[in-house]
Amino acid sequence: MTTTSLRPRAGRLFGQLVVLLMLAAVVLPLIWLALGSFKTQDEFLNASPWALPREWSWDNYRVAWTEGNLGTYVRNSILSVGPALGFIVLFGTAAGFALEVMVWRGRGGVLLTFLIGIMVPSQMILLPLFTTYFRVGLTGTLWPLIITYTAMGLPLTVFMMATYFRAIPREIFEAAVMDGASMLRAFFSVGLPMVRNAVVTVALVQFFFLWNDLLIALTFTNTDDLRTIQVGLLNFSGQFGSVQYGPLFAAICLNVFGTLALYLFLNQRVMKGLASGAVKG
């Protein structure tokens, strides 16, 4: 066997090794996390961190869901992320359609304004927003989270949706208008179905950003009944601040594997959505 024929083999072997290492870096921590969710506090403190659980019990999940108020935190996350995500997708898609398909004076400046919004750090606006919410009486509710999440998610969504609408031939919308369709009808009946995979992609990206948010939720939730799941995970501590590792690992498992299952379920649509905006039709 010549040296020339060995090079492609070595390249493939090296590539497979890199993929295997990357897969191990992702899968092994998840396995360790799942195994830890079945351990007792004594096993965490006295046994090896790599040891298997002595007894496979679901009690940590029960404690996390009931005594740890994980059910309340999940409900608050759904009630805050759900409406915000709906507003982001609806308004962001409509704005992308208006900025890319419709012709009107000043649309370039409006798109530039949205792009500037991407560059604004969230840390800069938290204090002014908290003061505003306090003055209008919105503190003590989930509305500060919904409004802030919507405002933070719109700039990137508008930019991405404008890119996807740019990939659709303009003649399609012109034909719809010539057939008597209004702009509203052209948006809902023509434009929206053609970018549905892109909408799923943008929605999933924004969902992970909002669901995993800690800073904004920690700033605007002042009671335990309003905390989201990421803020609630900070509360899994006992007397004198000792961490309850078993329920904490169980709560993290429910959060991580739940979002992972959602991503795997929508993976194909996400890939189609990313590809649809790559090439102009």
Care to describe what's here?
With 281 residues, this protein is an all-alpha fold. It has two domains: 3-36; 69-276, MetI-like (MetI-like fold). It is built from 14 helices and no strands. Helix 3 crosses helix 13 (245-265) and helix 8 (170-178) runs antiparallel to helix 9. The longest helix has 34 residues, at 3-36. The mean pLDDT is 85.
List the helices and strands and how they pair.
Elements: H1 3-36, H2 41-46, H3 59-65, H4 70-100, H5 107-118, H6 122-136, H7 143-166, H8 170-178, H9 183-194, H10 196-211, H11 215-220, H12 229-232, H13 245-265, H14 267-276
Helix pairs in contact: 1-13, 3-13, 4-7, 4-10, 5-7, 7-10, 8-9, 10-14
CATH superfamily of the largest domain: MetI-like
Could you say which structural class the secondary elements and strand pairing correspond to? Answer: mainly alpha
> How many discrete structural domains?
2
Based on the structure given, which CATH architecture of the largest domain is correct? Answer: Orthogonal Bundle
The portion of residues assigned to helices is over 70%
β-strand number? 0
Give the CATH level 1 class of the largest domain: Mainly Alpha
What is the overall shape? globular
- Topology-level CATH name of the largest domain: MetI-like fold
Counting DSSP H or I runs of 4 or more residues, the number of helices is 14
User: How is the biggest beta sheet arranged?
Assistant: none
